[in-house]
């Protein structure tokens, strides 16, 4: 069956500890003050199973929990700390935001490296980005780590502003991810993938092209890979990762989520944007072209990471390839070699595996779904979407191009 072939290898969400996070807002509370403000863990319960993330072929990396937290500008009830020990991220839902003019709310990490600011009008130009799920309220952008600090900033004496928090996603740790996902081997023999930064000097072109690749958090609880295509505001991932406007609007794209040092396990928070508009979804099953084309909000903030271009003609068996992506949900890694560094490089095993796909044994794993497969000219020759050694598979990029050519600017 199709799902048995997908890359569902155990995902590992790595918490960054280096200094690559987002800038601290001047209004973010100091860490010492944070932990004295409120109890660290408000009472919460696991949401019903029907509300948990479950998409065939996508690695589940989080749990939805419900709580009842009310903040107001009355007295000291202006800070709520949401903490789930061991969580790899916290994503907070604000069900009601009633703010007086000039008041605002921040959702921050305890150290302030990530801080997102929200005003009453939720204007992405003047406030931070956010996601939605079709229900009242909004989802703040996720915060890396096991703690999110929600603070109401008000100059009012009392009873002018009220904030209600009713749900949050918390990221699973490695053991929980193993428990909640099927493990299917897509790493062929020895895993030769390395942190993207490991290739900054030895393979500068491959390193640079990987900048356009982002980690995808789907509706708060799933992981895939996505990337910018062409010169305009367009992104590609797999159809089996998401395929509806609601899912696009509910998801985050995290650029520059990669380690600062080779093997350092020290990624920062990177730059997060939300999904904007769904443009096209492939027809047929996920064994076929399996693509989703969409755009993001706050496009200007991610343009500096570069873009990729689709090959417009079929590739050939034996062509050298490499794959940057977020396999296992970790910081970005690049697969350049088959089994050992400076050994045989990854190559197309069969350029016509079937009507829709090429095959290769270049290492991938759960979370790599949606990764670009690039050739030595740094054109995308396939969209990775199926795992199963020795025939990991990617949908043929020139066929995808034929379907979306009028929707992208592929001149580069």
From TrEMBL:
Matches recorded under Pfam families: Trypsin_2 (PF13365)
InterPro entries: Peptidase_S1_PA (IPR009003), Peptidase_S1_PA_chymotrypsin (IPR043504)
Leader peptide range in chain numbering: 1-32
Statement: the UniProt record of this protein carries the keyword Signal: yes
Top-level lineage group: Bacteria
Species this protein is from: Actinoplanes xinjiangensis
Lineage of the organism: Bacteria, Bacillati, Actinomycetota, Actinomycetes, Micromonosporales
Name recorded for this polypeptide: Trypsin-like peptidase
UniProt keywords, alphabetically: Signal
């Amino acid at each position: 069956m199709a799902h048995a072939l997908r890359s569902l290898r155990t995902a590992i969400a790595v918490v960054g500890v280096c200094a690559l996070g987002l800038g601290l807002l001047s209004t973010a509370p100091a860490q010492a003050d944070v932990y004295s403000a409120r109890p660290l863990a408000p009472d919460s319960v696991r949401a019903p199973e029907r509300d948990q993330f479950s998409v065939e072929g996508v690695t589940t990396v989080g749990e939805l929990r419900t709580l009842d937290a009310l903040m107001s500008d009355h007295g000291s009830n202006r800070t709520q700390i949401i903490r789930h020990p061991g969580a790899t991220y916290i994503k907070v839902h604000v069900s009601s935001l009633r703010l007086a003019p000039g008041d605002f709310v921040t959702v921050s990490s305890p150290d302030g490296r990530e801080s997102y600011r929200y005003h009453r009008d939720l204007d992405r130009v003047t406030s931070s980005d956010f996601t939605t799920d079709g229900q009242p309220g909004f989802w703040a952008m996720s915060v890396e780590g096991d703690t999110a600090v929600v603070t109401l900033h008000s100059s009012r004496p009392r009873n002018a502003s009220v904030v209600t928090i009713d749900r949050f996603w918390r990221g699973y740790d490695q053991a929980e991810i193993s428990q909640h996902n099927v493990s299917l081997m897509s790493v062929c023999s020895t895993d030769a993938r390395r942190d993207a930064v490991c290739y900054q000097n030895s393979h500068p072109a491959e390193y640079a092209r990987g900048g356009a690749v982002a980690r995808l958090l789907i509706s708060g609880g799933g992981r895939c890979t996505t990337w910018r295509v062409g010169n305009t505001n367009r992104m590609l991932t797999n159809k089996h990762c998401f395929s509806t406007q609601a899912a696009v609007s509910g998801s985050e794209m995290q650029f520059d989520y990669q380690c600062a040092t080779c093997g350092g396990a020290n990624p920062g928070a990177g730059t997060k944007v939300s999904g904007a508009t769904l443009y096209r979804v492939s027809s047929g099953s996920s064994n076929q072209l399996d693509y989703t084309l969409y755009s993001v909000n706050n496009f200007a903030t991610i343009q500096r990471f570069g873009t990729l271009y689709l090959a417009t003609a079929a590739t050939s068996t034996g062509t050298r390839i490499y794959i940057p992506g977020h396999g296992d949900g970790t910081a970005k890694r690049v697969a350049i070699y088959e089994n050992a560094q400076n050994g045989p490089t990854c190559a197309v095993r069969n350029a016509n595996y079937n009507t829709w796909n090429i095959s290769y044994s270049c290492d991938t794993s759960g979370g790599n779904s949606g990764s670009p497969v690039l050739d030595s000219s740094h054109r995308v020759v396939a969209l990775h979407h199926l795992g199963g050694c020795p025939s990991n598979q990617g949908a043929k990029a020139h066929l995808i191009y034929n379907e979306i050519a009028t929707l992208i600017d592929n001149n580069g």
